[in-house]
């Protein structure tokens, strides 16, 4: 999911005075769009491609199945329609336009730009293409003997860049396929995440600080300060580029994958257009309905969260160190320890056993998972750093389980077992700012609850002993301090989740729209 959201609450839009005004405006826009579409005789398509223009044959990469509730959505507040014509200049002009307004345009990522020299682009592609192909070999195709095939890439696979061009976009504008042609080969990079990654601007690859500048909708100018420097992947797959002399100029919009709910859109709709949380959910998850999680079979009261190391780098810990303001109980079927308040407890893996230290003294060894409980206080995790300010180390509700890693017996896996509602207390602050307001946070609460329980049901981390992770692999958990408004939003929507045709919704969300949301099958 997701990802961190940039928070700058300045220059808010002026809201409509009532629900009726809002509906009237939207109906008027809708009629204008229909009239415009009819006049142009535009044929609706889900994708536009540029194979013919670039003189390359089509590939046979399959398209994912459609998801009925994750469809493209119009986020601009004018007469624009989705993109239906294969004219790359139209996309370039759209992302260059700083006067376009839309839901969520008060984010500085509504529009963004940066530029690179031809030499820098060449270096980035040679470095990053190999990494993407190694990690996702099915999604990088090589041209060989008149067809596109999967093939292991050699070092510096591009050589000297001859051409970089968009091969396919979704009707929302997102780039689905990118053509990269050099003296050593011709390639298609497929899916927006890979495209954002091969153009990532890490300083150790580019060799300098590359600054991205942003713009709010209707501002007519970019920020004087960078909104990002050397990101490892581009803010979104919604961008276009042009060559001038020996430089490439990139113009884009949005932050995140663009499927489902735009968080800045939620902020705008609830604060400036009188939407309540149910209105917003209907808008972003078409055809989904609200039910209580208690009515869904196969879901318990607690969720198990795999806790990652500092920087969310790994699920495998060299050591785990914790303490609490009250006594902790540490046990399994073979051992039982009880600490005093503020005792420091450490866990390490040694010779296939978990060694347990209390105040640096070895107290027990075991091969089996260990439970840690502290019912009267939260537990501080001293071996991990997050971004909380209230306490120096992250503190957790619920219980912990420490076990030997399933893939490396010299490492430990750390699991936080917690009631789902209390889990959300430490998700919302990490995924949406308190300043977005109660109604926006209600939307986020339901999306986060649904997203977590959808992952719970999928059991994708079953072999590792938990349901979800605490990173963007699932959704970010306990990275920032709890706050009162988030708790209020969670309590006000307690148990509410979204279903579609009797199944939990995969409640995707992201930070900022570029003007249009994407169909799920055009992203994954």
The total count of strands amounts to 29
Shape: globular
| Strand neighbour order, sheet with most strands | 17-16-21-24-25-14-26
Sheet-strand content, in percent, reads: 25-35%
**Roughly how many Å apart are the termini?**
12 Å
Describe this structure in words.
- By secondary structure, the chain is of the alpha+beta class.
- It has 12 helices and 29 strands.
- The strands form 6 sheets. Strands 17-16-21-24-25-14-26 form a 7-stranded mixed sheet.
- The longest helix is centred in the N-terminal third of the chain and has 22 residues, at 19-40.
- It is globular and about 70 Å long.
- The N and C termini lie close together (12 Å).
Q: Can you give me a brief rundown of this structure?
A:
The protein has 524 residues and is α+β, with helices and mostly antiparallel strands. The protein has 12 helices and 29 strands.
Layout of strands and helices, then pairs:
Blueprint: H1 19-40, E1 47-49, H2 51-54, H3 88-96, E2 111-117, H4 118-135, E3 140-144, E4 147-150, E5 161-170, E6 175-182, E7 185-190, H5 192-198, H6 203-206, E8 211-215, E9 228-229, E10 239-244, E11 247-252, E12 261-262, H7 263-272, H8 277-284, E13 289-292, E14 302-307, E15 319-324, E16 329-331, E17 336-338, E18 345-350, E19 353-358, E20 361-366, E21 370-373, E22 379-381, E23 395-396, E24 399-404, E25 412-419, H9 420-425, H10 428-431, H11 438-458, E26 468-469, H12 484-492, E27 496-500, E28 503-504, E29 509-510
Parallel strand pairs: 12-29, 14-26
Antiparallel strand pairs: 1-5, 2-8, 2-11, 3-4, 3-7, 5-6, 6-7, 8-9, 10-11, 13-27, 14-25, 15-18, 15-22, 16-17, 16-21, 18-19, 19-20, 21-24, 22-23, 24-25, 27-28
């Amino acid at each position: 999911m997701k990802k961190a959201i940039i928070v700058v609450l300045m220059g808010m839009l002026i809201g409509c005075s009532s629900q009726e005004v809002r509906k009237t405006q939207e109906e008027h826009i809708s009629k204008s769009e229909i009239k415009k579409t009819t006049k142009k005789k535009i044929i609706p398509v889900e994708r536009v491609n540029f194979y013919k223009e670039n003189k390359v044959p089509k590939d046979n990469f399959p398209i994912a199945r459609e998801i009925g509730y994750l469809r493209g959505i119009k986020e601009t507040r004018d007469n624009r329609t989705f993109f239906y014509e294969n004219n790359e200049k139209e996309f370039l002009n759209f992302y260059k336009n700083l006067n376009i307004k839309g839901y969520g345009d008060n984010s500085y990522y509504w529009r963004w730009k940066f530029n690179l020299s031809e030499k820098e682009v060449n270096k980035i592609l040679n470095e990053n293409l190999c990494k993407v192909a190694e990690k996702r070999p099915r999604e990088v195709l090589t041209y060989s003997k008149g067809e596109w095939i999967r093939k292991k890439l050699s070092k510096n696979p591009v050589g000297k860049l001859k051409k970089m061009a968009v091969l396919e976009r979704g009707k929302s504008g997102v780039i689905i396929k990118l053509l990269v042609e050099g003296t050593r080969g011709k390639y298609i990079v497929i899916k927006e995440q890979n495209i954002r990654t091969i153009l990532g601007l890490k300083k150790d690859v580019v060799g300098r600080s590359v600054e991205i500048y942003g713009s709010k909708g209707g501002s007519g100018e970019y920020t004087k300060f960078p909104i990002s420097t050397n990101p490892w992947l581009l803010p979104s797959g919604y961008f276009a580029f042009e060559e001038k002399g020996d430089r490439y100029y990139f113009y884009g919009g949005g932050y995140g994958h663009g499927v489902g709910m735009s968080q800045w859109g939620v902020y705008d709709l609830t604060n400036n257009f009188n939407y309540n949380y149910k209105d917003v959910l209907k808008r972003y998850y078409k055809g989904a309905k609200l039910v209580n999680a208690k009515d869904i079979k196969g879901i318990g009261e607690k969720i198990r969260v795999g806790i990652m190391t500092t920087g969310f780098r790994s699920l495998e810990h060299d050591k785990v160190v914790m303490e609490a303001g009250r006594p902790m109980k540490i046990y399994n079927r073979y051992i039982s320890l009880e600490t005093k308040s503020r005792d420091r407890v450490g866990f390490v893996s040694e010779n296939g056993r978990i060694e347990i230290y209390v105040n640096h003294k070895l107290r027990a060894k075991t091969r089996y998972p260990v439970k840690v409980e502290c019912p009267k206080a939260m537990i501080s995790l001293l071996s991990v750093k997050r971004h909380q300010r209230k306490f120096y180390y992250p503190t957790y509700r619920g219980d912990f389980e420490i076990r030997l890693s399933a893939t490396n017996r010299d490492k430990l896996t750390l699991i936080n077992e917690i009631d789902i509602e209390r889990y959300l207390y430490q998700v919302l602050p990490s995924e949406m700012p308190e300043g977005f307001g109660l109604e926006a946070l209600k939307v986020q609460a339901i999306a986060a609850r649904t997203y977590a329980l959808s992952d719970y049901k999928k059991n994708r981390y079953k072999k590792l002993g938990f349901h979800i992770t605490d990173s963007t692999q699932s959704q970010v958990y306990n990275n920032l301090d709890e706050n009162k408004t988030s708790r209020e939003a969670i309590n006000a929507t307690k148990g509410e989740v979204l279903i579609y045709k009797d199944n939990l919704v995969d409640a995707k969300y992201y930070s900022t729209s570029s003007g249009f949301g994407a169909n799920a099958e055009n992203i994954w």
